[in-house]
Amino acid sequence: MERLLFQMIGAGFVLQSLSLITGFLFLQDMFAQHMVHKTFFSLVAWLVYGILLWGRWRFGWRGRTAIRSTLGGFLSLLLAYLGSKLVLELLLGY
Question: What is the pTM of this model?
């Protein structure tokens, strides 16, 4: 199960890297399009997953460390896609 988890995280990391790269290529004005929150939390999740994969490769991270990092990245992505609507509508009033 753990090997499968890290294989899926690796595949997701590659896909998220591609989506961030193409997003930056086609994004014209991040502030005018209200994409700052999504971009920020997506980059945080990308960093969390990247550090997790590196730590697994370099230090052999397993168990609780891997679970906490996986959930942290997931919560960041959840905030990026669902929470940005909350931030825009409730906090900023757009």
Answer: 0.86
23 close to 39: Cβ distance less than 8 angstroms = yes
Give tens-digit pLDDT for 9-59.
Answer: 999 999 999 999 998 888 888 777 677 888 899 999 999 999 999 999 999
On whether the CB atoms of residues 73 and 42 are closer than 8 A, the answer is no
CA 36/CA 66 separation, integer angstroms: 28
Query: What sign does the CA torsion over 44, 49, 50, 56 have?
Result: positive
Q: Give the tokens for residue 85.
A: 């609507």
Residue 48's Cα: distance from chain center in Å?
Answer: 7
